[in-house]
Amino acid sequence: MHTLSIKKQIKGLRAKEFSASEITSHYLSRINEYNPKINAFITTHPDASLEIANGIEISKKSNPLLGIPIAHKDIFCTQEVRTTCGSKMLENFISPYDATIVEKISQAGAISLGKTNMDEFAMGSSNETSFYGCCLNPWDLSKVPGGSSGGSAAAVAARLTPIATATDNGGSIRQPAAFCGVTGLKPTYGRISRYGMIAFASSLDQAGFIAPSAEDIAYFLDVASGYDPKDSTSLNEKVDITTEEITNLPKNITIGLAESELTEHTDPRILQKLEDAIKVFTSIGIKVTTVTLPHSKFAIPTYYVVAPAEASSNLSRFDGIRFGYQTNQPKNINELYEKTRSEGFGSEVKRRILIGTYVLSAGYYDAYYVKAQKIRRLIANDYKEAFDKVDLILSPTAPNLPFSIGEKSDDPISMYHNDSYTVGANLAGLPGISFPVGFVDSLPVGAQLIGNHLSEKLLLQVTHAFQNKSDHHLAIPKEFEG
Amino acid sequence: MKKQDINIETLKKLSMIHLTEDESNQTLDKLSDIMEMIDEIIEVKVTNIKPLSNPLDQTQPLRLDEATEKNQSEKYQTNAPKTKDGYYVVPQVVE
Questions:
Q1: How confident is the model at residue B1 (pLDDT cuts 50, 70, 90)?
Q2: What's the pTM value of the predicted model, to 2 decimals?
Q3: How far apart are CA A272 and CA A126, in angstroms?
Q4: Beta bridge partner(s), residue A450
Q5: Is residue A25 flagged as an active site residue?
Q6: Number of domain units in chain A
Q7: What is the pLDDT of residues A390-428, one digit of tens each?
Q8: Taking CB atoms and an 8 Å cutoff, what residues of chain B touch A298?
Q9: Chain B stretch 27-86, residues whose beta carbon is closer than 8 A to a beta carbon of chain A
Q10: Is residue B74, in this structure, part of any structural domain at all?
Q11: Distance between alpha carbon A222 and the CA centroid of its chain, in Å?
Q12: Active site includes A149?
């Protein structure tokens, strides 16, 4: 069952080839067998999952997602199941409410299998900052799965779930999807409500999905999207994509290959895979040209002003008083705050809070924060100009292959540059998708397409057309085939 | 950005994070490197460019000033480390 697409799983459930209980049990037993190898889940709740599955009766009129299993990134609040956000700070936190995305998916009848591992508070590109131990890459257990949604990507790659929710603040859906050989969609900013998604940087955070294929994601995107009065930045726009429409590739599509200085810092073997992908696109009638994004080289420094600034503000809520970890026997209120935050946060989180505090502090606010917000507009303008000429922009997802655990953990700047190709879409609020384009040294390589605001339908159509002509997204790591 | 330009003690105080001396020194080294990378933005010309804070340039929609949630304080306080009689308990702040 785990090799079936979501489309085939829906068909199988409706044809009574298997029941919701059977498919849920199948994935739970895979989690039981394989999760100890990769640590993709922080929390599972098999009894609750099965109880829901056992109560499901599927008919031809049922919602298509009824009985389909899913895993949720542990950044999304879930009632009755703890939400840790990968942090010691929230080790025992039980949310009083469900995140809107969780609620919508649950109402559509999908069955939660558990909560996936992630970098602490989504701050990381390797999953190594998780308080619950690093998740490992199913393609090579000595390598990182990427981050911050590494658990979601690894769980999908190992087929421990057919799909997983994830979040993307600077590349946190797309980079782990690339590292794990699966497909990851970061929708337009505001497309999916952020209510109940633990905040990192509110002007960049966006929920999305990781699954083997674009078609799998299309089934869930429409359900999860839409305006939510509880998130004033959510958009009142439906995705307007049906899974039938995904096969309709529009005519006269032009993709622009992003030309920038970033190419010089990219593994040439990844660039070769991108060339191979371009051949596939041209073979299906898509025109490929080049575009320039002059300010893309400033995207990383700009992001590392904006994101930590917003994080330092958002994470001030963790004071050890209302919820979360609290230090023992503080002498006074200041010691309560300082020691709680020192003991409850990991080093990367503390580092980013300190950077954010610095760029927002008196004397530096204009030089760093305001200036970064102005460069953010220049970066967004570059994309606007590019979309006057092309429909989508193509690039590698990451400049390097999945790296070894520990290789970059003491070198934050090298780690930050993993997101060189992805942060621009977050700064400009654009949708982006990463999809597998082959392997180098038995490790997956991903390519990224970025579209204009609200162009998810086109992104899914083009990626689906590519995946109809390739089989990289169907590959399962050998150790997890059984 | 040179190390001496970053006052780590002020940053610790502003962000309410306790660090030991060793941790402070290590953090300062890393912060200095990161700020040097961030300083690349200095060369960018931004004359007459407006800051972009919401990527879609949205303005906040207004709504009626009405309570939309019921009072669930008891439920919310189950997550608090210490409460008493519906209040959050903190160390004494007034002598």
A1: low
A2: 0.97
A3: 24
A4: A393, A432
A5: no
A6: 1
A7: 999 999 999 999 999 999 988 989 899 999 999 999 999
A8: 40-41, 44
A9: 27, 30-31, 33-35, 37-42, 44, 46, 49-56, 58, 60-61, 63, 68, 72, 75-76, 78-82
A10: no
A11: 17
A12: no
